[in-house]
Amino acid sequence: MRCDELKDRVTAGGEMTPALREHLEGCAACGVEFGFLRALCADRPQPPAALRARVLAASGAAGIGGRLGRVGAAAAVLVAATAGFAGGWSAKPASAVPAAAPAVVVREVEVIREIERPVSPDLAACIAIAGQAIYRDKVKAKFNDRIQATEVRVDPAVLGVTVCPVARSIKGLCESQPEVFQVMEKE
% helix / strand / coil in the chain, to the nearest 5? Predict the structure, then answer.
């Protein structure tokens, strides 16, 4: 596995294969660039082996056998899975770059109008820089001496990525600032 293969698979949203995990653990450069993947690939703590027996004993289902014992075990698994999901969801890191979304003014459950929030030149430059770092040659940006984006050319493939907040922000800027953020022509 080479570094560029890892980058291509990660930016395409590919599955974390054992080869990707092995490369990520051994490569310092990819570890720095994709540190968030190391956290996702890290071994999660396993519950103690006796946990099932303790849960069943506490619920009174351990000595009952048959269908009631299976129902109790299923309920315990459901509770544990729900708690694990809720804990993982709340531990999720916040997005570093907020997506530019229009504000909506509501009065008496009736939408009066939509107001576009202007995007500052500094935020637009940060999004362009993040786009270059993540998508490499698919986002090409030029900056002036005040580090403000003067021209950002975006590959159409980036606009189709919906799971990345940077890609969503770039798509919004292509729509709201077409004089700076432009979609590249397909070759």
Answer: 55, 15, 35
